[in-house]
UniProtKB/TrEMBL annotation:
Residues 307-317 have a biased composition (Polar residues). Residues 1-25, 284-317, 331-356 are annotated as: Disordered. It holds the Pfam family MIP. InterPro entries: Aquaporin-like, Aquaporin_transptr, MIP, MIP_CS. This is Uncharacterized protein. Keywords: Membrane, Repeat, Transmembrane, Transmembrane helix, Transport. Residues 333-356 have a biased composition (Basic and acidic residues). The keyword Repeat applies.
């Protein structure tokens, strides 16, 4: 098989330990893997020569592909930078809109925040999970997708980033800074309801794309960014569509304006908790009944038919490894179907040559 014919390796849509966003990268073998003419089998290396090719079929293989470990310091650093970019972009657009008598319009405000969320998720999601929001961090911890012991560090980084962005904008645009603070234009009850609902919608989508391997995967940044834009269209004129306690806290401290700040500190957290819990309640059950295996982004594959030119695969271990990894999704589905068939019809087991 030529290298051009080898299927690409699918990426893993979620990473353990940083479940706030997907991992945008496929498996990469170590330098010594191809040099030793070996394949991964249950995270151990066996030479190709030791593998028996039974009737043109591969032996059963079960392989987990864990993400590379990331230190907490790197995660917190990425979270700080990502939150800084988000708060700076969203607040700066609001300030410019006020300074230019509304030239940015609501569409411009929504596009600015949505694009900021999208690019930050794509840039830092594989490092920190790109929470960018204490509400998301707390909601993930409540659902056991994020360790509680890391919550104070993450929230501290987010608050510090918000303060840095707000005071930087104050120095740049002073004295025109009022437009960067989110305050309700209507009643407090209306503002609380809108912040709760928009945060619910946001967290429902975030939970789907960040914790469910069957969701949009690599399009997570686009999905979450589009959700932010939608929510700004819904609540932007009434509450500023904060959806994020630190989006309000930093600018409020910078200009000493704390009007109805309790709404922006409580409603997003409550809405996020309800949104995450709702998706967890309605999502499809795990295909193999083993949620631990799914949440760890483990991949498994079983015996599969080797193409007609299998001699090229056996001669070139790099092609064989790439081919096997490229077919692991189809093999996983086939393994599940065979398992269900064996349970319902035990007599078919002896007649199936793939089960040896």
């Amino acid at each position: 098989m030529d290298n051009a014919e080898v299927p690409s390796v699918p990426s893993t849509p979620a990473t353990p330990g940083t479940p706030g966003a997907p991992l945008f990268g496929g498996f990469k073998g170590g330098r010594g893997v191809h040099g030793r003419k070996s394949l991964l089998r249950s995270c151990k290396c066996f030479s190709v020569e030791e593998w028996a090719m039974e009737e043109g079929r591969l032996p059963p293989v079960f392989c987990s592909l864990p993400p590379p470990p990331v230190s907490l310091a790197r995660k917190v650093g990425a979270e700080f930078i990502g939150t800084l970019i988000l708060i700076f972009a969203g607040t700066a657009t609001a300030i410019v809109n006020q300074k230019t008598q509304g030239s940015e319009t609501l569409i411009g405000l929504a596009a600015s925040s949505g694009l900021a969320v999208m690019i930050v998720i794509l840039a830092t999601g594989h490092i920190s999970g790109a929470h960018l929001n204490p509400s998301i961090t707390i909601a993930f911890a409540a659902l056991k997708h994020f360790p509680w012991k890391h919550v104070p560090v993450y929230v501290g980084a987010q608050v510090l980033a918000s303060l840095c962005a707000a005071f930087a904008l104050k120095g740049i645009f002073h004295p025109v800074m009022g437009g960067g603070v989110t305050v309700p234009s209507g009643g407090y009850g209306q503002a609380f309801a809108l912040e709760f609902i928009t945060s619910f919608i946001l967290m429902f989508v975030v939970t789907a794309v960040a914790t469910d391997t069957r969701a949009v995967g690599e399009l997570a940044g686009i999905a979450v960014g589009a959700t932010v834009m939608l929510n700004i269209f819904i609540a932007g004129e009434t509450t500023g569509a904060s959806m994020n306690p630190v989006r309000t806290l930093g600018p409020a401290i910078a200009v000493n304006n704390y009007k109805a700040i309790w709404i922006y500190l409580t409603a997003p957290i409550l809405g996020a908790l309800c949104g995450a819990g709702t998706y967890s309640a309605v999502k499809l059950p795990e295909e193999d009944g083993d949620s631990n295996e799914k949440t760890s982004a483990a991949r498994s594959f079983r015996r599969a038919d080797v193409p007609t030119n299998s001699s090229n695969l056996s001669k070139d271990p790099q092609n064989l490894l790439t081919w096997a990894l490229g077919n692991m999704n189809n093999l996983e589905l086939q393994r599940e179907r065979d398992s269900q068939r064996d349970l319902s019809s035990p007599t078919e087991k002896d007649g199936d040559p793939r089960l040896g």
